[in-house]
TrEMBL record:
<dbReference type="GO" id="GO:0005525">
    <property type="term" value="F:GTP binding"/>
</dbReference>
<dbReference type="Pfam" id="PF03143">
    <property type="entry name" value="GTP_EFTU_D3"/>
</dbReference>
<keyword id="KW-0251">Elongation factor</keyword>
<feature type="domain" description="Translation elongation factor EFTu/EF1A C-terminal">
    <location>
        <begin position="162"/>
        <end position="190"/>
    </location>
</feature>
<protein>
    <recommendedName>
        <fullName>Translation elongation factor EFTu/EF1A C-terminal domain-containing protein</fullName>
    </recommendedName>
</protein>
<dbReference type="InterPro" id="IPR009001">
    <property type="entry name" value="Transl_elong_EF1A/Init_IF2_C"/>
</dbReference>
<dbReference type="InterPro" id="IPR004160">
    <property type="entry name" value="Transl_elong_EFTu/EF1A_C"/>
</dbReference>
<keyword id="KW-0547">Nucleotide-binding</keyword>
<keyword id="KW-0648">Protein biosynthesis</keyword>
<dbReference type="GO" id="GO:0003746">
    <property type="term" value="F:translation elongation factor activity"/>
</dbReference>
<keyword id="KW-0342">GTP-binding</keyword>
Length: 191
């Protein structure tokens, strides 16, 4: 059984109550950090959440009309990006994740129709176990599964985009059910 960790996020404007102290033109951005642990069952291809523990929650109040103009003014964008990066750091989000999260927030703000509904940003610090009932994954294949879950693109800029399907043969189909030798680890090659 292998254990892997990754960070996931989403940003959406929800139909929940806005805090009473908010002004008419103030948009509330709620950062909600949770630690999630679970299992990835390889044979079923599903992620089973076992525990979800809230770690931190922080609210950022922004001027709705002003932040909606961020696409036309780089100084507004950098001002709000810096404010969000500080807030993310204060609740313990790794700095490497900031750019992707801030981009998702800006996309959600751009799609927001009103300042009356808060914008929730869910942040998951995920640890999962790969349940390998009929074999095991090498570190390369486990990394490929982890990258797939994070939706990370593997490749140099400018390379062609394509879809691929990996099919692992079962024992009855001629696949191996035991390693070739002690310590053998199957490999994935990306070309």
């Amino acid at each position: 059984m292998a254990t892997r960790c990754y960070f996931n996020h989403w940003a959406v404007q929800r139909r929940t109550r806005k805090p009473e102290a908010a002004g008419d033109d103030k948009l509330v951005i709620r950062l909600i950090l949770e630690r999630v642990s679970g299992s990835l069952v390889r044979s079923a291809g599903e992620f089973i959440v076992e525990t979800s523990t809230p770690l931190a929650e922080k609210e950022i109040w922004v001027d709705f009309c002003r932040i909606k103009q961020f696409s036309s003014d780089a100084s507004i964008e950098s001002e709000y990006a810096e404010m969000m990066a500080e807030s993310l750091s204060s609740i313990g989000v790794p700095e490497a994740e900031h750019a992707a999260i801030i981009e998702s927030v800006f996309v959600a703000v751009d799609a927001a129709v009103s300042s009356k509904l808060p914008l929730d940003v869910g942040l998951w610090d995920v640890t999962y176990r790969l349940q390998l009932n009929d074999g095991f994954l090498s570190s390369q294949s486990a990394a490929a599964v982890s990258w797939y879950l994070r939706r990370v693109v593997i490749g140099k800029p400018g390379t062609p985009i394509f879809e691929a399907i990996v099919y692992v043969l079962k024992k009855g189909e001629g696949g191996r059910h035991s390693p070739l030798f002690a310590g053998y680890r199957p490999q994935f090659y990306l070309m």
